[in-house]
UniProtKB/TrEMBL annotation, chain A:
Residues 103-117 have a biased composition (Acidic residues). Keywords: Cytoplasm, Exosome. This is Ribosomal RNA-processing protein 42. It is found in: Cytoplasm; Nucleus, Nucleolus. The lineage of its organism: Eukaryota, Fungi, Dikarya, Ascomycota, Pezizomycotina. Residues 74-120, 317-353 are annotated as: Disordered. It comes from Neoarthrinium moseri.
From TrEMBL, chain B:
This is Chromosome disjunction protein 3. It comes from Neoarthrinium moseri. Residues 514-847 form the RNB domain. GO terms for molecular function: 3'-5'-RNA exonuclease activity; endonuclease activity; RNA binding. Residues 355-375 are annotated as: Disordered.
Length: 399, 984
């Protein structure tokens, strides 16, 4: 999606310098932390379990549909028919990931009730994400990268797949189809992430009627179906206590951290980062702390503090790092210094490689750790952008 | 951004589009969300003859269907202007019988909402309702309210489906009233909602929708008492009766998903529940997982299953395994003094029952290692109820003395005719009238807190023991379709009626592909008085010394074309049912007894099988053809025998018959050599007085050579045809098989013979069985052999129709006939399977193309399944009819006859009387005033009596019994009652 812009080196240099000011001046007049306005709706695809559509003001638009299927859980050879582990009664990795390493000596004496809980665990292949960007093959590296980033955020803590567990023998398999329906006018990651977020929020699964490890049977009343992310509250004010993750695109120009960059802004970024944040607690923890949760919720003047968690961070190669057109081979790293004319003429070489004020030159070198830390901190900040975005999305009616 | 969302129903800008969302679970375990778009329209007519606004719909051919609802509907006290009824689903569920009444319930609007809900709740009721909507005189109209804009109702947030549907009904009623009000008429009928739901009534009142409860409405009709009894019992009181858990008499059923998981996992077993005819507390279930049936003992374990239900059982732990009972336990005797009213405080197992069970346990414990306990099981859930309507009579003793005269509602027990069905609790206001009548009832429910199933009255068949009532009862009990053929069926008959003739000109299309066999000397041989002549034969010598033999079968498939109304009716009836005094035809009379029947002296279409047989009756070649024949004579078996035996008759026809007889004997010998069984069942014939058709005497059927003559050639034809259609259609050919019985079936009989007579029964092959049956002879007692044959027959499997593709070739075998392949071809007038075979054979010889319905395996399998059941029912009905008439012929007489002991229980024994072909049970308590002491020796099949009567009864023993006619108090059937006179 690293579409090259049609800006001249001079224009790029100008853009870069305005974005480096304090506070930065963005071409569309937004503040550094301001998102592009968007419109969103859910439930646009009646045949899906959940769907959403988001339009950014710049005209990019995405649709996400979520379909669920019942699938038989494949048992590993170490498990018996009921899915219990044979031999050693060690807990699954899900629990130890929670940062509570278990003393395997003791676990033999675990009580059944807790064992049950540990068994509710999902597997990453219960979710299949497909991304489609117009004009790109679905096995294009950029498309695959997008898909990977989105699924990485979703699967990071294992909480999501646990929601797909039906019983020891069956689970839901979720197909998340993400389609960008406009041309990729800007890097579509935030758009796709937010749309997926909404689609998952609105995803409902038929209500289970069978018990325990029976072959699952479901209520045929769609109105009785339950949200994957349970809703609380009444009427239009419903909200989920935990919500799917969102992935935000953040870029840095100099010391400025700029959110939701447009295509042009990204063309002059020093570095760009995709930060995935999750909200609320994982299922297990929630169950344990249910009692205290409620007290908290009503305590802080009606607006509970949002518990944001960092799920993943990925650096993205912004187009600014690509060699813009018209760069002589002598300075083009990817041309391996084969520029003939320039090497013979040291003057010309100097003119091409040297920094010239007012002429854009692609930044070189990696991201500074301090900048990276600042970017992540900015995302997770209380009342920061992630909070703001989540608040905004909360207002979307789920249908 | 403009929204891309589908409009919701509440959205005013998209009035005519809505959608329906639900979850569908498929058999393969897929779960899908289904969204159906609903396009709402305004041209669905109300179909009232008053209304001038609605245009009646026309079909593609431009035929307009006229409005259904009358313009002058009947009025009641509450609605003097006349009324149309709109029942809700509960009303139909509880009182479908009411709607079928011919005295009331006309002009009914069936809403689509209700119809769909009914289909989900009860398919049989749905089919009955569809039948009603098709009947012209009842004026039932199906209004598609879900598709009409004004009556469509969108489900609201948090509204249950039931509430939504109720609202849709009210909305439709309201619309109807408003719609009709537009018509300027003085006598505007009211559209009234009929419901049983209190909440619905209240809401209707709020919305000012005319509504009335089922009871109030029926109460206002004439004949209210009789009609009120037809409302289903169970739901009437609603859910107000929430009982404490302690009051539940029966264990709860498993959930459907639990059962399905269990059955799939092999931990639970599914099968059809059968009740032992001798012990109502003992059932058995044959499940695929085990070779032998599982026993289900006691009320608790039977857990509300009724004979015929598809149930899921769980095997009980080994310490609860038992022997099958050797005792006769009749519900009547044990639960005699129960009070139908009182359920409270009643234990599940009454004291008497418990005692009976204790004896059982004792029995099991004291018996030697020989009597090995068998696996038992308990019912944990019911997949499908196979409740039908039951015929029975009211238990006199359950009726309070006051009730007989009073009009108040009373609870009584109905004792079904079928001993396998438990007593049914019935609430009725007309006890006085129903006493002593045969009545038809339906079971509504069997709740956990109710000891007996609860049912409601459907109709009365008439006085007990009147011929009409008993015959109808018998037909109902065996599910025989005996209603007259509907008009649509009769419309399929040839227009010429009885004047139909084979076209004179051979250029006529009817002659196409037919061979002219009118020149052959063909005759038919049938029982006396036979009107539906299926088959005729001929034989003549060929110049090469061989014989040409022809079997000519009525060409029914010429008249009954596949998939028309007549064909459908015939496929449902499956077979003609022969009762002693009555015949219930599969095809209308015109065809059966005239146009198809191969009557003598007239030309008829036939389907002929022509063989060339050599001197030793081996087939040289065979061909099949449609033909036209002219039978020269219709003989009875006796007449034919006399003619053959009369040496003075030397005409060609008689010579042909002699050839046939000679060949048939050779065929029979060959069949016997191959191991065909000669089985037996006690067959008798009731002689009737011609005027009053009262039975006067019973005779055992005589078998003449001519019987066997016809039989042999029919078998030969069936076998030849089976081979041909299987060759042509290896997947779909309709065949008949008789599976070899599992060896264990013969265990008991073999043991009995060994113990009592020192005879061996070899069961390795049908040949071995045939030989050892031949060896079972008692020089002093010629009937002994027949007795053993009768008993052996009962150990066999029953033969069945099947589709060739459903079985492997070795499974095609007909065990009894020792034939590799077999079908039914020779009686198309009275059996539907034969008709199918005709069509397939016609296609196999390229006479006509195969109709899709005869080609579709799925459809043929359904046909096979149905005719197998019908065939069995027809046999049972026929036997029951004979039993009834045997009883009638004994009326006022007492006969002493010889009989044989067939089966011994610890408290009684069963005796077969060959003279009348009847079996009777003699209980010990009937032997003397006080029940004699008895010692039952199960290993030697001996019952030693002492005390009030000294006697030893053994199996196979010959006895003399006094037979008189008596009414069986338990079933209300009049039948032969036996008393033991002496043991020989």
């Amino acid at each position: 999606m690293a579409t090259t812009t049609l800006l001249s080196p001079a224009e790029l240099a100008y853009l870069h310098s305005t974005l480096s000011l304090t506070p930065p001046i963005r071409p569309d007049g937004r503040t550094a932390t301001q998102f592009r306005p968007l419109t969103a709706e859910t439930g646009i695809l009646p045949g899906t379990n959940g769907s959403a559509r988001i339009c950014f003001a710049d005209g990019t638009e995405a649709i996400v549909g979520v379909k669920a299927e019942v699938e038989k859980t494949r048992l590993s050879p170490y498990q018996d028919r009921n899915g219990r582990r044979q031999g050693s009664r060690r807990k699954g990795p899900a629990k130890s990931k929670q940062g509570k390493p278990e003393d395997s000596e003791d676990s033999g004496e675990e009580e059944d009730g807790e064992l049950q809980d540990a068994e509710v665990k999902g597997s990453n292949d219960w979710v299949e994400i497909s991304v489609e960007i117009p004009g790109y093959r679905d096995d294009d590296s950029s498309t695959v990268f997008l898909g990977t980033m989105l699924s990485e955020a979703l699967l990071a803590d294992g909480d999501f797949t646990r929601r797909l567990w039906i019983n020891r023998r069956f689970h839901w398999k979720l197909y998340i189809d993400i389609i960008l329906i406009s041309p990729p006018l800007s890097y579509p990651l935030p758009l796709l992430s937010l749309t997926s977020h909404l689609a998952l929020l609105s995803t409902r699964l038929p209500k289970l009627r069978s018990e325990a490890d029976e072959d699952p049977m479901f209520d045929d009343d769609w109105a009785a179906s339950t949200f994957i992310y349970p809703q609380t509250g009444e009427g239009s004010k419903t909200s989920a206590t935990t919500r799917p993750p969102i992935t935000l695109l953040v870029m840095a120009v100099g010391d400025n951290i700029i959110f939701d960059p447009s295509k042009e802004e990204l063309a002059v970024a020093d570095s760009a980062l995709a930060v995935s944040v999750g909200e609320g607690q994982a299922l297990q923890e929630k169950a344990a702390e249910e009692g205290t949760m409620e007290v908290d919720a009503s305590g802080v003047d009606g607006k509970p503090g949002r518990a944001l968690r960092l799920l993943s961070v990925r650096t993205i190669d912004p187009p600014s790092r690509l060699t813009p057109p018209g760069v002589p081979n002598s300075v083009n790293a990817s041309a391996w210094g084969q520029g003939g004319a320039a090497s013979k003429n040291p003057d010309a070489r100097q003119a091409e490689t040297g920094d010239v004020a007012g002429v854009w030159k692609a930044p070189r070198g990696g991201m500074k750790p301090a900048v990276l830390g600042a970017m992540v901190a900015k995302v997770l900040e209380k009342g920061g952008v992630a909070d703001e975005v989540l608040d905004g999305l909360q207002g979307v009616e789920l249908a | 951004m403009t929204s891309l969302k589908r409009p919701t129903a509440n959205d005013q800008s998209h009035l005519n589009l809505s959608s329906k969302v639900y979850v569908r679970s498929t058999k393969s375990g897929k779960v899908q969300k289904i969204v159906r778009e609903v396009y709402l329209r305004q041209d669905i007519p109300c179909s009232s003859q008053i209304c001038s606004n609605c245009r009646p719909p026309a079909n593609a051919a431009g035929q307009v269907s006229p409005p259904v609802l009358s313009d002058k509907p009947a009025g009641t006290k509450a609605f003097p202007q006349g009324h149309y009824l709109v029942p809700d689903t509960n009303a139909l569920l509880n009182a479908m019988d009411l709607f079928e009444q011919s005295s009331a319930f006309f002009d009914v609007i069936i809403l689509q909402t209700v119809l769909e809900e009914l289909r989900n709740r009860s398919l049989p009721l749905y089919n009955r309702l569809i039948g009603l909507t098709k009947s012209e005189d009842k004026r039932f109209y199906v209004f598609f309210n879900e598709f009409r804009l004004e009556t469509y109702v969108a489900r609201e947030q948090d509204e249950s489906i039931n509430d939504r549907n109720d609202r849709a009904v009210r909305q439709a009623v309201q619309w109807y009233n408003m719609h009709l009000a537009q018509v300027k008429s003085k006598r505007l009928p009211t559209v009234v909602m009929l419901t049983d739901d209190k909440g619905n009534i209240e809401k209707a009142k709020q919305d000012k929708v005319p509504a009335v409860t089922l009871r109030d409405y029926v109460g206002g009709l004439e004949d209210a008492d009789r009609l009120l009894d037809m409302i289903a019992e169970s739901r009437e009181r609603g859910i107000s009766r929430d009982k404490k858990a302690a009051d539940f008499l029966y264990p709860e059923y498993f959930t459907m998903s639990k059962m399905m998981t269990g059955v799939k996992g092999g931990m639970l077993h599914q099968g059809i529940f059968n009740v032992s005819p001798y012990n109502y507390l003992e059932g058995s279930i044959k499940v695929p997982a085990f070779p032998k049936a599982l026993l289900i003992l006691g009320r608790d374990n039977i857990n509300r299953a009724v004979d015929g239900d598809v149930v899921v059982v769980e095997v009980l732990p080994k310490d609860q395994w038992k022997e099958p009972s050797t005792k006769i336990i009749e519900e009547e005797a044990i639960t005699k003094n129960e009070n139908a009213d009182g359920d409270e405080g009643e234990d599940l197992v009454t004291e008497k029952e418990r005692r009976a069970l204790q004896e059982e346990v004792k029995k099991t414990h004291t018996s030697s290692s020989e009597g090995r306990p068998q696996p038992t099981a308990k019912v944990v859930g019911i997949i499908k109820r196979n409740w039908r309507q039951y015929v029975g009579h009211i238990d006199q003793s359950s009726v309070g003395s006051a009730a007989k005269s009073g009009r108040k509602q009373d609870t009584v027990f109905l004792i079904p005719m079928d001993k396998k069905v438990p007593k049914i609790k019935l609430r009725t206001r007309q006890v006085g009238e129903l006493l002593g009548k045969r009545i038809l009832v339906t079971i509504d429910a069997w709740d956990r807190e109710s000891r007996h199933p609860v049912g409601h009255f459907v109709r009365s068949l008439g006085e007990l023991e009147t011929k009409a009532a008993e015959t109808e009862a018998l037909l109902l009990e065996h599910d025989v379709q005996y209603r007259p053929f509907p008009k649509t069926v009769l419309d399929c008959l040839p227009k010429e009626g009885h004047d139909w003739k084979v076209p004179a000109s051979t250029d006529d299309p009817g002659w196409k592909g037919r061979e002219d066999l009118r020149g052959l000397l063909i005759c038919s041989i049938d029982p006396v008085g036979c009107q539906d002549i299926d088959d005729a034969l001929h034989a003549r010598a060929l110049p090469n010394g061989n014989f040409e033999v022809g079997v000519h079968i009525a060409d029914v498939s010429h008249f009954v074309k596949p998939s028309n109304a007549m064909d459908n009716e015939a496929s449902i009836r499956g077979t003609t049912v022969y009762l002693v005094d009555k015949r219930i035809d599969m095809l209308p009379m015109l065809l059966g007894t005239d146009l198809c029947s191969l009557k003598p002296y007239v030309e008829r279409y036939a389907f002929s099988v022509l063989w060339e047989l050599n001197q030793s009756a081996d087939i040289v070649n065979v061909r099949f053809t449609k033909s036209v024949i002219k039978s020269r004579e219709a003989f009875s078996y006796e007449q034919a025998q006399i003619r053959i035996d009369d040496d003075s008759q030397q005409d060609d026809l008689t010579k042909g018959m002699r050839t046939l007889l000679m060949l048939s004997k050779k065929l029979k010998q060959k069949r016997m050599d191959a191991g065909a069984l000669s089985l037996s069942s006690p067959e008798v014939k009731v002689q009737m007085e011609s005027e009053t058709s009262d039975p006067i005497d019973v005779k055992t059927k005589e078998l003449l050579d001519t019987n066997s003559l016809v039989e042999e050639f029919m078998l030969l034809a069936n076998i030849s045809v089976a081979g041909k259609i299987y060759e042509a259609f290896p997947q779909t050919a309709i065949l008949r098989r008789h599976a070899a019985p599992p060896k264990t079936n013969f265990d008991e009989l073999a043991n009995q013979l060994k113990v009592k007579r020192g005879l061996e029964l070899h069961v390795d092959s049908s040949r071995a069985v045939a030989d050892s049956l031949d060896a079972c002879r008692d020089p002093k007692e010629p009937f002994f052999n027949t007795l053993i044959r009768i008993m052996a027959t009962r150990c066999m499997m029953s033969a069945e129709y099947f589709c060739a593709g459903t079985q492997a070739y070795p499974e095609f075998r007909h065990y009894g006939l020792a034939s590799e392949i077999y079908t039914h071809f020779t009686s198309p007038i009275r059996r539907y399977a034969d008709l199918c075979a005709h069509r397939q054979l016609a296609a196999a010889i390229d006479y006509e193309p195969m109709h899709p319905s005869v080609r579709s395996r799925g459809k043929l399998e359904a046909v096979c399944k149905n005719i197998n059941v019908r065939h069995r029912n027809a046999q049972l009905a026929g036997r029951a009819s004979i039993a009834y008439y045997v009883g009638q012929s004994l009326k006022g007489r007492v006969a002493e006859e010889e009989g044989f002991v067939m089966k011994i229980f610890s408290n009684g024994f069963v005796i077969l009387v060959p003279r009348f072909g009847i079996e009777g049970l003699i209980r010990l308590r009937d032997l003397a005033e006080t029940e004699p002491e008895s010692v039952y020796d199960a290993e030697n099949y001996t019952l030693k009596l002492s005390g009030s009567r000294d006697l030893t009864v053994e199996l196979f023993q010959k006895v003399v019994v006094r037979i008189s006619d008596a009414k069986d108090e338990a079933t209300g059937k009049r039948g032969a009652k036996m008393e033991l006179v002496k043991v020989i």
